[in-house]
Amino acid sequence: MTDTASVAEAIRAAAGRLAATSETARLDAELLMAHALGTERSAMLLRAMRDPAPQGFEALVERRAAHEPVAHILGHQEFFGRSFKVTPGTLIPRGDSEVLVEAALERKRDAARVLDLGTGTGALLLSVLAETQARGVGTDSSPAALAVAHDNADLLGVEDRARFHLLDWTRDGWADDLGQFDLVLCNPPYVEEEAVLDPDVRAHEPHGALFAGPEGLDDYRIILPQLRSLMSERAVAILEIGHEQSPAVSEIARGEGFAVELRHDLAGRPRALILT
Ligand code: GLN
To answer: What are phi and psi of 220, to 5 degrees?
Structure first.
């Protein structure tokens, strides 16, 4: 690409460059270009395509070609229609996890108190707070993640209804002082230690948010036995699962006395368990 390439030409070249790295090369190139131009992708597509490509775009493309996630380069990620700040210290919110928010709003829109265990960016908790009048608590074992969640509560304007606590659920008594909630959300780490992950994920996202022992079940085995004590009488808990984990996690949940209902993601794979 030459210095005189237009925005459109530079995007086309970058999409080709990124084809080996990303299944969404064209989209990635457009998002990086919008970032380099300091504009929104939609505005760029309408107006800027014949302008000269900005300085700095090439450097962003090279970062992406080296497998850095687009969300890390941009510093934010869209989730359930809102933009969330993201850093390398937090899991990048996934479209698949929107199923949990949908189920929560469907089943427990009237929840007064919401708990999000392992909140990360706060995407699950803050989406529910933004859609309702609920108050909520997000916990995480990572101070860096909690700082991001705080920032996101401010960005979404729900900071007066959100509290965040540093909490490590591998420690005895972790659930004792949290109180009771009408809705409990949780996207725990659930990836098998030996799983072959995309280099974007393995090299750039926090392993503490991903890996959960040889079967990916370690965190469910810790959380499920304590879950009932965190739930008010008519409460609902919604847990994200790996798409092959529904039999194993359902069995653990039934063993703890829960009724289990399954939710699927957009690709039609099992993605969440609703527990009552
Ligand atoms: N869905 C994520 C992935 O496949 C895993 C998220 C998690 O472990 N909670 O990368």
So the answer is: -60, -40
Q: Choose one of 191, 215, 239, 241 to mutate for the ligand 1 pocket test, by most ligand atoms within 8 angstroms of C-beta.
A: 191
Three-state secondary structure call for residue 23 = coil
Query: Ligand 1 center to residue 216 CA distance, Å?
Result: 10
Query: What is the bridge-based pairing of β-strands 82-85 and 76-79?
Result: antiparallel
For residue range 106-134, list pLDDT tens digits in order.
Answer: 999 999 999 999 999 999 999 999 999 99
Complex ipTM: 0.91
Tell me the average pLDDT across 17-32: 97
* CA 96 to ligand 1 centroid distance, Å: 9
Domains, in order of start, for the chain: 7-66 (1.10.8), 88-275 (3.40.50.150)
Convert the pLDDT of each residue in 200-210 to its tens digit. 999 999 999 99
Contact (Cβ atoms closer than 8 angstroms) between residue 171 and residue 222:
no
Q: With contact defined as beta carbons under 8 Å apart, do 252 and 223 qualify? A: no
Mutate to test the pocket of ligand 1, among 79, 187, 192, 217 (most ligand atoms within 8 A of CB): 187
Query: Given this model, what pLDDT does residue 48 score?
Result: 87
pLDDT digits (tens, 9 = 90+) for 153-180: 999 999 999 999 999 999 999 999 999 9
Nearest CA, atom 5, ligand 1 = 210
Compute the C-alpha angle 252/257/262, nearest 5°. 60
Q: For ligand 1, atom 9, which residue shows the shortest CA distance?
A: 189
Using the atom order of ligand 1, give the atom closest to the CA of residue 210.
Answer: 8
pTM: predicted TM-score of the whole model, two decimal places = 0.94
> Separation of 2 CA from ligand 1 center, angstroms?
39
